Amino acid sequence: MAPQTRRTTSFPRVIIDNDTDSEHSSSEEEEEEQVEEEEDVAVRNNGMEPEQSLDPKNKGKAPICISLKKVCKVCKKAGHEAGFKGATYIDCPMKPCFLCKMPGHTTMSCPHRIATEFGVIPASHKCSSNQLFYVFERQLGHTRSQVKPVRIIPDQVCCAVIRYHSRRVTTLEFHPTNNNILLSGDKKGQVGVWDFGKVYEKIVYGNIHSCIVNNMRFSPANDGTVYAASSDGTISCTDLETGISLSLLNLNPDGWQGPNSWRMLYGMDLNKERNAVLVADNFGYLYSVDIRSNTKTGEAILIHKRGSKVVGLHCNPVQPDLLLSCGNDHYARIWDMRRIEARSSLYELAHKRVVNSAYFSPLSGSKIVTTSQDNRLRVWDSIFGNLDSPSREIVHSHDFNRHLTPFRAEWDPKDPSESLVVIGRYISENYNGAALHPIDFIDISTGQLVAEVIDPNITTISPVNKLHPREDILVTGSSRSLFVWRPKESESVEPKDEGKIVVCGKDMKRGGGHGDESDNSDGDTFSSKKKNSKGKKSNLKSYKSINKKVKR
DNA sequence: AATGCATGCGGCC
DNA sequence: TGGCCGCCCTGCAT
């Protein structure tokens, strides 16, 4: 097509702004070659002839000028570039630091990245000595150890289910008594039950929820029963053996009436003493359901800003009537369930942005760690101390884009000193040429990064992580796959199943129970002990190397 | 390989 | 207050 033809069309005039070392334009042929060669061609407006902008079909837009400058993808300005150079991401210097959000530097030179104690901001004042504190210390202080144990970090993938779910994993939960059973929920509403000790033993229930499973908890009375809260607005109660499920609460009995009325359930926890399931919705309300009668108790209570999502609920492990909530209104709040009503919170813990999670410490229940979208973990060393400001803020990359499950820092339930948390990292790091997203173990008493765990085969971001309540095991939900990590020397996998990777087919709707090695019904299965069949090519690349890695 | 899409949240008007 | 626009490291399907 001749250039003249293009200029007579109604499209904005296209001008090639050749910004090579020489200021002069080259011939049109050369320009076209350069257009093909250039990777980054920016389109920007510049002031042009008035008759162009008067053209009604241009709708007042100035003609488009195609610049051949190397242009920043982030701020669209010339002179620098942002984006991946190999496996290293170069920040745009015009934007605040992607890690700590402060202007004046980039992630690479961020003081929080360089600091030995990875990004700790000390509290402006520390005052943790009121009367309650001393009473607490005398009564409960012994439940946590002041001596930090030797950290055993599960840092080797020992088995995995690739593409187990049909959508990304959103929540994980360990079985309360059976050490090898892992529950997983996904964005589509499916609930998976996986015996990772036997690797092939897996079931996916697809009819419990119709969209995101946000939280799951085992029944304290019966460990074959699990409760789940979902964005479909229901709490389910499922028998894991049969998959038979009943709905304890349905906030959308009239079905879909548009996005303004559709209620979704996010935060959920159990209050054992009250035999209650507590859930909170996307409009700021808390609900309580009695699990003996399966009926709602009382009215919904507004616990966060009206219309804002409550994403997390946690009952204190020592005093279950103490409830911790967090939400999109930038607050975490502590409540007393014995006298809870709107605006009656005991404390409000302010954050700069959305709070993804807030948890009491697992043993003494006296510490709090929160994860906020401002890329900071906040630590309160004692709920009996001064809660006006956190004891520590730890800068850590976990602000997510809209398509990821929110990151949550989770305690190590086995750590007697209550100082170790695990959380996935959003920002990628260059590991010998591969851009990987590690899973971080952080000592919240110092802010120190204790370990960063990676596997070259996990190239996706891993926002969902959980540490085993009794064993040195980490499980990770990364995209649609699940990974089990153990410490390097651990031999606790059944020998015949060691290092097995199960790959589920993408068309899997419901897991077949006992996938032995010849069972291909819901996807190919592979292990390090047998040769790979010539299965699906796209999967092959990733699990081949996993197999190589786990073969020891 | 390139493209499109799903759809949360902050900021701006 | 509400609607609309835009988004820096997605993941997956086509």
Automatic annotation (TrEMBL):
Main location (coarse class): nucleus
CC terms in the record's Gene Ontology section: Cul4-RING E3 ubiquitin ligase complex; nucleus
Keywords: DNA damage, DNA repair, DNA-binding, Metal-binding, Nucleus, Repeat, Ubl conjugation pathway, WD repeat, Zinc, Zinc-finger
Keyword Cell wall biogenesis/degradation: no
Places the protein is found: Nucleus
WD repeat windows: 162-195, 348-381
GO molecular function, one term: damaged DNA binding
Biased amino acid composition, Basic residues: 528-539
Keyword Acetylation carried by entry: no
Origin: domain of life: Eukaryota
Region entry Disordered, spans: 1-59, 494-552
Compositionally biased tracts (Basic and acidic residues): 494-517
One Gene Ontology biological process: response to UV
Biased composition (Acidic residues): 28-40
Protein family according to the UniProt entry: Belongs to the WD repeat DDB2/WDR76 family.
Protein name: UV-damaged DNA-binding protein 2
Organism: Cannabis sativa (Hemp)
